[in-house]
Amino acid sequence: MKPVLVVVNPASGGGRTAKRWPEVASVLAGTGLDCQAVFTAGPGDATRIARQGVREGRALIVAAGGDGTISETAAGFFADGKPVPCETRFGVLPTGTGGDFRRTFNIPIDPRSAALVLAGGGRRRIDAGLVRYVDRDGRPEQRIFVNIADAGIGGEVVHRVNTGPKSLPGPVTFYLASVRTLLSWKNRPLAVTIDGLRRELVAQQVVVANCQYFGGGMRMAPTALPDDGLLDVIVVGDLNPVENARGLRRIRAQPQGQGLPGEAGRGGVGVSGPAGRGRRGPRHRARDFRGDPTGAYLDGPNVTRGVIATPHFLASQAGAEVLREGGNAVDAALVADAVLCVVYPHMTSIGGDLFAQVWPAGSPAPVGYEGAGRSGSLASLETMRERGHSAMPPQGVLTVTVPGTVEAWGRLLETYGTVGMGRVVAPAVALAQDGFLVTEGLSRHLHDHFQWLMTDPEAQRLLPPLMPGMLMRNPDLARSLELIGRFGVNVFYRGELGAAISSAIARRDGLVTASDLATHRGRWSTPIAARYRGLTVYEMPPPTQGLLALALIRRLERLAPDMLRPGPALARELYRLRDVAYPLRDRYISDPDFVSVPAEPFLDPEVAGVGRGEAIPEGDTIYLCAADEEGNLVSLIQSVANSFGSGVIAEGTGILLQNRGVYFSLEPEHVNRLAPRKRTMHTLIPALAARTGEDRPWAAFGSMGADGQPQVQAQVFVNLADGGLDPAAAVAAPRVRVAPGGGELWVEADYPGADELQRSELPVKLLPPRSTSMGHAAALVVDGSGQWRAGADPRSDGSVEFA
Questions:
Q1: Catalytic residue among 621, 653, 680, 683
Q2: Backbone CA torsion sign across 631, 776, 713, 720
Q3: Which of 298, 357, 595, 727 is in Cβ range 3.0-4.6 Å of 779 for a Cys bridge?
């Protein structure tokens, strides 16, 4: 008997599972999982097969199919509504697509990638719910579910899909069932017992949700989590004739509460809490999706196929959602970036800077946008000396520069976007207002930086040292984002928010004035291109360190292919090249408006810098990339410079201001010396690549890591270009990095040859595998029209989402 039992529903996805199963089975075999596949033939088979597997003591039972198959298989772990004591684990392989459950759990849509995740053996708790109901024939029934259960119009649609022909594609089958149901339903009465209260409804649907998505992409339960011990009940209320006619496109939600044991009414649904747990949670107000720009949409003809990779799963989900609504890659990138400004306050904020490369559909080359703010008009070497500083302070109001992000959103949106600013910020507004769960990484940063953050009253109030899993909210930021969505860019620089920011800086005796904010302008630029083994790599021009990234890549091109594989040889070469290239950055790169920056020393592999290079401050940054079926590709990076930026939050706005000014030098002869209204040397470098001679993009890639960004980026690029790795593997692979200022070589403990390097003459410091000191990266490869592969770094909280 094989230890792994795979329950396969060949009819899932309109028969897609049956067609793809040989390919999926081959991938499973290659992962080393010893599997036995058993195919279902009708309703209830998945439960019966899983129940037999539990009795046999199988190590793992995997549901391969759609959402229905997942719940039916999970039901095999229960008897009489109670969990069966066992050591068997439950796995999911969404081949059909299992969209509701898959999206909530961030399981890849591609079965091959999902199989690799399954083989990785990661574990997560899953709540299971018990729904009691009266079926169409008046018989009392009960159902175990782990994703969604529904009654009313949704139940009728599901019934028609399950009992209808399977010869048509899944979306067509669902669409026809929906049309027939809408024509016949006519607002039937529905009785439901929720929290012990019986309600007589003329409702269209009642959904008991253990995950956020429902019905192929509608985000009906934004607060639902599959492992929090709670269930969300959503009542989709009385639809008028106009809404009924539009029912395939939109829904609206009415009261929502948490489900607890109750009696079933005829035609209704009684809800019990998760099996074995009877605790009550708080009520949550359901969204009214009418007129709400975050509305719940079904996949339909307006969906834009695409992909997005970000360092936080909530941002990836928000970006993919706008693609499903018909937006493009630029829309998706900006929506995701806005979410990151809420859920990743240690790394980014609307009070930070943004750089992006966009390869517009049909264009022969990319364009760049420099959303870099300048120093204040009061900033000067003399001012800093008068205040007792011989070097820039690490945090505080003196390091604040004008934020460039919001203006960059506006310029990118008006040039390449398809939605309004209100739609861009809507998911971010909801998360800032309603709250989000703190990740382990954010919690660690909050605790590590607690002491100095507490020196600012607003930071003390809004950035407390929360534990992982606790809820973080920023209602002030929600209001600020709402204002930006309603009034656009001007409100941030020349309106209410601009006044609040400049006043907050003035109260702290800072260097940025209201006039500095009002006169801010970003700029479009032409990325710098360099050849590498049949590829052309594009980086942002100065004031970024894009030339430094190209310097490393140009010099790596001279190595033999066998030296580019991760290992001691490549580590030694990266250690050497760091001292060759980094001094060039410190000698030449600053604001081109103040100094001429030559490209030749960076692009000529024969040129070497002098010295070891400066130790610039470590930074925290977000990088994301997105693509769509039209051919648009976006590579975007944003940051508040160091962790939590300046630590200054403008009162009443929730806006954390960056400390980008920390990168200025106070040495009078330094190329990057402080001056009024000057852009500092920027570490932010989003990258793109194309096959030489082709007028379309091949890849987007980038990383956080400040001083280490060029080194991380070079390794990810070599993994893609020379190693032929999938983007997910390219960004996850163990890395090395030279410490800021040179000298020490940081090596992740699982890097090939780490032991040999530690025994060598090099000053090696071993770091844990997947160390955040190595930055977190993302990458995307275009395989053809509408075909992509992408990866989000496991060092982050990110995910890849397809639409």
A1: 621
A2: negative
A3: 727
Annotation says 348 is catalytic: no
Those residues with Cβ within 8 angstroms of residue 470's Cβ, 6 or more apart along the chain or in another chain: 437, 438, 443
Query: Residue 655: enclosing H or E segment and its boundaries?
Result: strand 655-656
Q: Which residues of 188-206 are buried (b: 16+ CB within 10 A; e: fewer)?
A: eebbbbbeeeeeebebbbb
Q: What is the pLDDT of residues 654-710, one digit of tens each?
A: 999 999 999 999 999 999 999 999 999 999 999 999 998 888 999 999 999 888 999
Could you tell me which residues come within 8 angstroms of residue 753 by beta carbon, excluding any fewer than 6 positions away? 567, 568, 571
Residue 726 phi, psi dihedral angles, 5° rounding: -60, 145
Upstream peptide bond of 97 is cis (omega within 30 degrees of 0): yes
Q: What are phi and psi of 701, to 5 degrees?
A: -160, 155
Query: Maximum CA pair distance of the chain?
Result: 86
Please say if the pLDDT value at position 523 is more than 90: yes
Residue 248 has pLDDT above 90, yes or no: no
Q: Please tell me the pTM assigned to this model.
A: 0.67
**Element housing 234 (H / E):** strand 232-236
- Our measurement of the distance from residue 627's CA atom to the centroid of its chain's CA atoms, rounded to an integer in Å, reads 14
* Residues written for the chain: 803
3-state helix, strand, coil in the chain (%, to 5): 35, 20, 45
3-state secondary structure at position 78: strand
Positive or negative CA dihedral for 183, 189, 190, 194?
Answer: positive
Buried b (16+ CB within 10 A) or exposed e, 129-165: bbbbbbeeeeeeeebbbbbbbbbbbbbbbbebbeeee
How far, in Å, CA of 373 to CA of 370, rounded?
9
CB contact set of 421 (below 8 Å; sequence gap of 6+): 409, 410, 413, 484, 485, 488, 489
CA distance 210 to 144: 12
- Whose tokens are 């390097």? That residue is 757
Q: Which amino acid is at 12?
A: S
Instruction: Decide: 619 and 644 in contact? Cβ < 8 Å.
Output: no
Would you call 467 exposed, middle or buried from its count of C-beta atoms within 10 A (0-12, 13-18, 19+)? exposed
